[in-house]
Amino acid sequence: MRRALTAALVFAAAFVALAFLFVPVLAIFVHVTPGRLVAQLSNPLVGDAVVVSLETTVVAQVLILALGTPAAYLLASRRFRGRALLVTLVELPLVLPPAVAGIGLIAAFGRYGLLGSPLRAAGLTIGFTQAAVVLAVALVSSPLYVRQAIATFEAVDENMVAASRTLGAGPAKTFFRVVLPLARGGLAAGEALAFARGLGEFGATIMFAGSLQGVTQTLPLAIYAEFDQTNGFDVALAMSALLVLVSAALLVSLKVTPRWQSSRPTSRFLFARSLSS
Amino acid sequence: MRRALLAALCAAALAVPAALAATRAQDRTPLTVYAAASLTDVLPKIDPAERYSFGGSNALATQIVQGAPADIFAAANTSIPGQLYRQGIVEKPVVFTRNALVLIVPRSNPAQVRSVYDLRRPGVKLDVAAAGVPVGDYTRLVLHKLGLDDVLANVVSNETDVREVLAKVALGEADAGFVYATDARTVRGKVATVAIPSSAQPTVRYAAAVVRATAHRAAARRFVARLLARAAQRRLRAAGFLPRH
Predict the structure, then answer these.
(1) pLDDT for the residue B21
(2) Looking at A229-238, B80-89, B140-149, which range is the least confident one?
(3) Which of A83, B2, B88, B134 could anchor a disulfide with B77, C-beta 3.0 to 4.6 Å?
């Protein structure tokens, strides 16, 4: 009897939790008819926002991959004083409120910010440009990638690296031919998460880059701009639905990633004792 | 030792809200006032006992339509509360003050903007509120009256309320922005004001109304009436607002 009651309570709690998570997402798709939802997508505002979002997110992700990968490899492969502190600093933007990131970006890269005058001397103003959106997206999404990349590089079997070196490959060749292929799956997973987070960036962007259709107005900013406009709610719903679908696709790709990643050993024996565990 | 510290922390965490709640319970329930962002500094001076939610009048109206627990709505134009009145959501709005529009530039004036006509210069970073936000609509009206519609090509951002425009110009991120005269006064050291030709000056009227769904109708009506009384009008004048007629 007691046991049945406990089981019932557990099921009830699970049901409430799952329903709570599912209902708002579902509601986006059923608030208006699917036909009306799709029709909203022809609004030029939506197209502009999609283009701005894609452009800025892709540039930010390229920067994250190009700069974040070496940084992560360094932090994963070297042991030095202050390493723990550095890793914590890398992870800090992850837990910072986006509004704090926005203030930080203005204080650093704004016209009268810390780097304002050298930037001005170089003829660069960042505020209100797509570069500002890229910086905001990179700041809030890079920790997701770098953090995952550090863990992935740490899990790469040192024996493989040592074997490559003893067989005569230099550090660069070893990195590109051995480490990177082995880490591919983990890096892709981190990148997918960073991409999804970057696509959703809102707070830092609206503070540092402003909101201008076709220039700095990303999908989340367009949703915010539309929801309180006359007849804007349906357009906001349509853009939300779009973002739900893209995020879901990224998440699914994340789930299937381990299946095609090549970090499987050719020889089971060599990988029997993973150094990561 | 650790446990004692933890206990002390827990006790403090419980005691602080309890103490706050106790001080509040002595007074009557505060009214919830949804008010235009340009009223941010002055309304709490007129009546510090109420709770305020400041923002763009259009965003506040959307929230009220969707059932936000507002007792009073005070907007920076008459058309938005008028619309809610026709929909039966608020009682009849009353005009309680007026304002003027100004162009502001950062003190250092990086783009050398000395008149509204300088806004035509390519590359001037002009910050405005979005269309639909009262100050955004007034801004477009002024530019249209001056024959400066093409200035909108220099807009770098469409903000959701006047205080965001104010912040971005005061920080020096934007070269110029349109705000109310009263907003410019709150950051006097950081911005300079450029007058708008009086022929193009729009009529900026603020209207307040009691939200019909309020649970405190009598108190809410008293609040609106108080806005018209001499004490409140004096406060509004002191903050730079114009007489309501």
Answers:
(1) 53
(2) A229-238
(3) B134
Local confidence band at A270 (pLDDT 50, 70, 90 cut-offs): very low
What burial letters (b/e) apply to B141-165, b meaning 16+ CB within 10 Å? ebbeebeeeebbebbbbbbbbbbbb
Q: How far away is chain A from the Cα of B75, in angstroms, using its nearest Cα?
A: 15
Mean pLDDT, chain B, integer? 91
Instruction: Compute the distance between CA of residue A195 and CA of residue B71 in angstroms, rounded to an integer.
Output: 42
pLDDT given at position A90: 92
Chain B interface residues facing chain A, Cβ-Cβ under 8 Å? Answer: 56, 58-59, 61-63, 110, 125, 127, 130, 132, 155-160, 168, 171-174
Q: What tokens were used for B90? A: 């608020």
Q: What is the 3-state secondary structure (H, E, C) of chain A?
A: CHHHHHHHHHHHHHHHHHHHHHHHHHHHHHCCCHHHHHHHCCCHHHHHHHHHHHHHHHHHHHHHHHHHHHHHHHHHHCCCCCHHHHHHHHHHHHHCCHHHHHHHHHHHHCCCCCCHHHHHHCCCCCCCCHHHHHHHHHHHHHHHHHHHHHHHHHHCCHHHHHHHHHCCCCHHHHHHHHHHHHHHHHHHHHHHHHHHHHHCCCHHHHHHCCCCCCCCCCHHHHHHHHCCCCCHHHHHHHHHHHHHHHHHHHHHHHHHHHHHCCCCCCCCHHHCCCCCC
Give me the interface pTM, i.e. the ipTM: 0.72
Residue A211 to residue B59, Cβ atoms within 8 A: no
More confident residue, A208 or A1: A208
Stretch B35-61: mean pLDDT: 95
What pTM does this model have? 0.80
Closest by CA to B146, choosing from B168, B178, B174, is B178
Alpha-carbon distance B8 to nearest alpha carbon in chain A (angstroms): 26
